[in-house]
Design brief:
Elements: H1 7-15, H2 20-23, E1 34-36, H3 53-75, H4 85-92, H5 99-116, H6 130-137, H7 144-156, E2 164-170, E3 176-182, E4 189-190, E5 193-194, E6 211-213, H8 271-274, E7 275-276, E8 291-297, H9 304-307, H10 312-319, H11 325-339
Antiparallel strand pairs: 1-6, 2-3, 2-8, 3-7, 4-5
Helix pairs in contact: 1-3, 3-5, 4-5, 7-10
């Protein structure tokens, strides 16, 4: 009888499938003039003690490549064939008939966002940052350990086999909240508008593993979730965040309910119930924009190899120390600054 721990190896075999129906559409098999968007860390070294090299490869390479391969297969010969993952997600969100395409694009984007906040050199929250001060000022929280407790309880309440993403989000008033998305759900795109703080301007976000065409002599694409330094920046300024809010030029109303219109796939989103300390005088605008700061993937393939079948709670516990919280703080500040004129 085969050991139950052969699951990760089976995941890799599926992701690396070279059957005619899949292999010809793998990102690595497409135009040779393309460069793959790399992760912001060395997969082969892992992110210890959170994820071993083997487990990290399952999540960042095998799973992500498999998702992109199947998305390429679904979009071949369609209007989405030459679109980026983000463009595909925005367009397919308006057509319920393309729900499977939307789901694969959403998964590629969600997984990339999850990995983009992990670091081989993680940082702790800064006590005097606006993010930490908001936590301290929130009566139902009061401290970072309290946030950890609430967030972790949300994960513990999920079904044991749930393939969900759990997100820490904010709104234009600085309120913080925790929500989950399931199946093809995402908080990164709603009504064709990209959600999430950052300053990437009008450029198109590319996800981990996606192929990007680069002309001869140009620099390869930056790691997923980051942007290249501006030309002429002194000393090679640090890359900025690519996760941003793109306000749509006009709010087009589809004749049918968009696939991705709801932030939660299991029911209506009630912002007043997910945001801590929401001010009553802001009630009319609370939740009009929910913006992701960081998320964790609770899919079993993310933790099975290192933590075992029932190791999700330990996996979540160790995740907190693998996050670059300075990056999360910067995202919180960038979004608030960008929204100040509209509050």
């Amino acid at each position: 009888m085969a050991s139950i721990r052969t699951l990760p190896s089976l995941t890799r075999q599926l992701a690396r499938s070279r059957s005619p129906a899949v292999a010809s559409f793998l990102p690595s098999q497409r135009r040779l003039v393309h460069h793959r968007v790399p992760p912001a860390f060395d997969v082969e070294k892992g992110l210890l003690p959170f994820l071993s090299p083997e487990n990290l490869r399952t999540v960042a390479v095998d799973w992500q490549d498999g998702v992109l391969a199947r998305l390429n297969e679904l979009t071949r010969g369609t209007e989405y064939e030459n679109m980026s993952v983000l463009q595909t997600l925005k367009q397919s969100a308006m057509n319920p008939a393309h729900a499977l395409i939307f789901n694969y694009a959403s998964e590629a984007l969600n997984n990339s966002f999850f990995l983009s906040n992990l670091s081989a050199k993680p940082t702790q929250p800064t006590p005097n940052s606006n993010f930490s001060q908001q936590i301290a000022a929130t009566a139902s929280l009061g401290s970072f350990p309290a946030l950890i407790s609430h967030f972790s309880a949300h994960v513990s309440g999920l079904h044991p086999s749930s393939g969900a993403y759990v997100w820490l989000v904010t709104d234009p008033h600085g309120n913080l909240g925790v929500i989950g998305t399931y199946a093809g759900g995402t908080v990164l795109v709603r009504e064709r508008a990209q959600m999430g703080p950052g300053g990437y301007g009008s450029k198109d976000l590319r996800v981990l593993g996606e192929k990007v065409e680069v002309k001869d002599g140009e620099a390869p694409p930056p790691p997923a979730g980051e942007t290249a330094p501006a030309a002429g920046a002194a000393g090679g300024a640090a890359a900025g965040s690519a996760w941003q809010t793109v306000q749509p030029g006009s709010q087009q109303q589809a004749s049918q309910t968009p696939v991705g219109d709801s932030l939660l796939k299991d029911g209506a989103l009630d912002p007043s119930k997910i945001l801590f300390g929401a001010k009553q005088h802001h009630a009319s605008s609370i939740g009009q924009s929910i913006h992701p700061l960081v998320c964790i993937s609770t899919h079993p393939h993310c933790y099975f190899e290192d933590y075992g079948l029932w190791g999700r709670d330990e996996y979540v516990q160790k995740w907190w120390a693998a996050v670059d919280w300075h990056k999360v703080e910067q995202a919180y500040d960038q979004f608030r600054i960008k929204q100040q004129g509209g509050i």
